[in-house]
TrEMBL record:
This is Uncharacterized protein. It comes from the Eukaryota. It comes from Zooxanthella nutricula.
Length: 518
C-alpha cells in the first residue's frame, strides 16, 4: 500500500551549508542538479555534498529543491517493506485482510489478546508489522529524517544502490555482505569520483541518516531509548545530556549485555564499531572492551598494561582502537575507511581465528605462511579452510586478505646499519602500512633516515609496506626435471621445509645459502 505523504517541494527555511552558502548559491553557481547530482560548477576536490552539511547534518541535496530535495519529498510516500514476513510467516497483506493492526500502529479488531503484542511476531531481524507495513503504522516512522538513498549515485564501476542491496554486497552496519568477494578489496575502493562509497550513499549499506533504535533494547535498569530522549539523559554525539545526574555514574555503567544507550539509541549517537577492524595483532573491538583496555574518553583502561605502550602503537591500516571502537571513544559521526575488512566471524576448520594466526606467526601480511608455520608438518594453510572453503589468507587482513599482488622482500637489501628485512619484521621495527612498529625507537630517527642507496625498508620489505605492483601472483608450476647438486627436487624441499615461498631459508634448512646447492 502507498500512503499520501507527498508534498510540494520547498527549500528548507534559512538553510546554509557548512560554508555559509544557501540554496540560491547552489543554483547560481550550478553546483548541483535537480536529481541530486553534482553540477557543472562543482569541483571534485571539494568532496561530496555530505562534507558540507550544516551543523544539523543536513546537506544541500536534502535541503534544496534544485539539488534533489524535490525527489526526496516525493519518496516520502509510504511503501510496505518489500519481502517482509513476520515470525508467523504472514506478510503485510495478511495483516490488513485480517484486521490485525491499525494505521496508527495499534492492535486491530481481528487480533486476539492471547497472541500478545505485534512486536512478539517481529522478523528475525527485529522488524515487526508496525515498522514494515504502512497500514500498521510504518507511515509514522517515515519522518523527515527517514533514510533516502543518495540520488543519482553510482560507484566508480557504475553500480548503484540497488545493485549493492540486491546482490548482498553490503550490510546495514556498513560492512561487506555475503555477496562481496574478498578479491574486490574494501567497499571504499570503488567510491565515486568525489569519494562517496556505498556506505555513505545507500541506506541498505549503512548510510547514517537512516537510524532505528535497537529493537527490544533497555538498559540494565529497564529504561528504553524513549526514556533517554524524554528526560534528556544523552546527547546526539554520545555524551550525557542535561537530565543525567552525576551521581548516577556514566551511561556506560547501565549497559545491558555490553550495549549501552550510546550504541542502541539513535538520539544517543548509536555508535557502531568500525566493521571489519582489528589491531595489528588481529584483535577486535570486543577484546578491547571485555579486557578493559580502554575507556569511553579514549584513554587506556584498567586492563591495559604499561608494557603494551600506547593504544596507537597497535594501529592497523592507520586506524587505532580509539577511532574504531565505541568502547574506546570512537566518535560515531566520524567515517573511517579501511583498505581491508577482516571477517570477524571467521574461524578455520580447527576453530582458530585471525588473531591466533597473526599472534602465533602462522601467516604474514602479504599472504605467505609466517615464520612459525611449518608446511612440512601442517601442509598449506588452504588445508585448514572452513566449511565454506575460506582460509586465513581470504578472511584475515593480517594474513594477506585483499592483497591482489604477490610481494617479495629484496633479498640482498640491508639498511645503512646492515639490518635486513628479517631484522625489521622480526623486531617489529615497522608495520605493514609503512609506519614505525612498536619496536622502533624514536631516538633512531625515521625509517627513511636509514635508507641504503636511497632505498628504505618501506620500499624493500613487504612487512614494512612494500607494494610490488609489477609482480602479479600467478599459478606456479615446479620444473619437473630440476634437481639440486645433491639430487633433491622441489617436492623434497617442500616436505622438509627447506625454503619459504618468498625465497628464504625454511625452518628445516641448516646448511648455508641455498645457492650453494645449485
Amino acid at each position: 500500500s502507498v500512503g499520501t505523504s507527498q508534498s510540494t517541494c520547498k527549500d528548507l527555511p534559512h538553510y546554509a551549508d557548512l560554508g555559509g552558502d544557501d540554496c540560491n548559491m547552489y543554483v547560481v553557481w550550478q553546483w548541483c542538479t535537480a536529481d541530486g547530482g553534482y553540477g557543472a560548477g562543482w569541483r571534485p576536490a571539494w568532496g561530496p555534498f555530505v562534507t558540507w552539511a550544516d551543523e544539523n547534518g543536513v546537506d544541500p541535496s536534502e535541503a534544496c529543491c534544485a539539488c534533489g530535495r524535490a525527489h526526496i519529498v516525493e519518496q516520502r510516500a509510504c511503501v510496505d517493506e518489500p519481502g517482509w514476513h513476520g515470525a508467523n510467516g504472514n506478510d503485510c497483506a495478511q495483516y490488513y485482510e485480517n484486521d490485525w493492526c491499525t494505521p496508527d500502529g495499534s492492535l486491530g479488531v481481528g487480533w486476539q489478546g492471547e497472541w500478545g503484542k505485534l512486536a512478539d511476531f517481529a522478523s528475525a531481524s527485529g522488524v515487526d508489522a508496525t515498522m514494515a507495513c504502512c497500514g500498521c503504522g510504518r507511515v509514522n516512522i517515515l519522518r523527515e529524517d527517514v533514510c533516502i538513498d543518495m540520488l543519482a549515485w553510482h560507484d566508480s564501476v557504475g553500480h548503484d544502490c540497488a545493485n549493492y542491496t540486491t546482490n548482498n554486497w553490503c550490510t546495514l552496519e556498513g560492512g561487506p555482505g555475503v555477496g562481496w568477494r574478498p578479491a574486490w578489496g574494501s567497499i571504499s575502493r570503488v567510491a565515486d569520483a568525489v569519494g562517496v562509497d556505498a556506505t555513505m550513499a545507500c541506506c541498505g549499506c549503512g548510510r547514517r541518516d537512516f537510524c532505528m533504535d535497537e529493537p527490544g533494547w533497555a538498559d540494565a535498569a529497564g529504561h528504553e531509548c524513549s526514556i533517554y530522549v524524554e528526560y534528556e539523559w544523552c546527547t546526539s554525539d554520545g555524551g550525557s545530556g542535561p537530565g543525567w545526574k552525576d551521581q548516577w555514574g556514566s551511561i556506560e555503567d547501565y549497559a545491558n549485555d555490553g550495549v549501552d544507550a550510546t550504541e542502541a539509541c539513535c538520539a544517543c549517537g548509536q555508535c557502531k564499531d568500525v566493521a571489519g577492524w582489528t589491531d595489528r595483532r588481529g584483535l577486535q573491538c570486543d577484546v578491547y572492551r571485555e579486557l578493559g583496555w580502554c575507556t569511553r574518553d579514549g584513554e587506556t583502561g584498567e586492563g591495559w598494561q604499561v608494557e603494551y605502550g600506547a593504544i596507537a602503537d597497535w594501529s592497523f591500516q592507520g586506524v587505532a582502537a580509539t577511532e574504531a571502537c565505541c568502547a574506546c571513544g570512537r566518535n560515531p559521526s566520524d567515517r573511517v575507511y579501511l583498505d581491508c575488512e577482516t571477517d570477524l566471524t571467521w574461524a578455520d576448520a580447527s576453530g582458530n581465528r585471525c588473531y591466533q594466526y597473526i599472534t602465533s606467526g602462522w601467516c604474514s601480511p602479504w599472504g605467505w605462511p609466517g615464520e612459525s608455520w611449518n608446511e612440512y608438518l601442517y601442509g598449506p594453510m588452504s588445508r585448514y579452510a572452513n566449511s565454506a572453503g575460506v582460509d586465513a589468507t581470504q578472511a584475515c587482513c593480517g594474513c594477506g586478505k585483499g592483497r591482489p599482488n604477490a610481494c617479495m622482500d629484496d633479498m640482498d637489501w640491508a639498511d645503512s646499519e646492515g639490518n635486513s628485512c628479517a631484522t625489521y619484521t622480526g623486531n617489529s621495527w615497522c608495520s605493514p602500512d609503512g609506519s614505525p612498529g612498536v619496536g622502533w625507537k624514536d631516538s633512531w630517527g625515521t625509517i627513511a633516515s636509514r635508507a641504503s642507496n636511497g632505498i628504505a625498508a618501506t620500499e624493500a620489505c613487504c612487512g614494512c609496506g612494500k607494494v610490488d605492483i609489477t609482480v602479479v601472483r600467478r599459478s606456479c608450476a615446479d620444473r619437473p626435471d630440476w634437481r639440486d647438486s645433491d639430487n633433491f627436487g622441489c617436492s623434497d624441499y617442500a616436505r622438509a621445509a627447506w625454503c619459504t615461498p618468498t625465497g628464504g631459508l625454511g625452518a628445516g634448512w641448516e646448511w648455508g645459502p641455498l645457492e650453494n646447492y645449485s
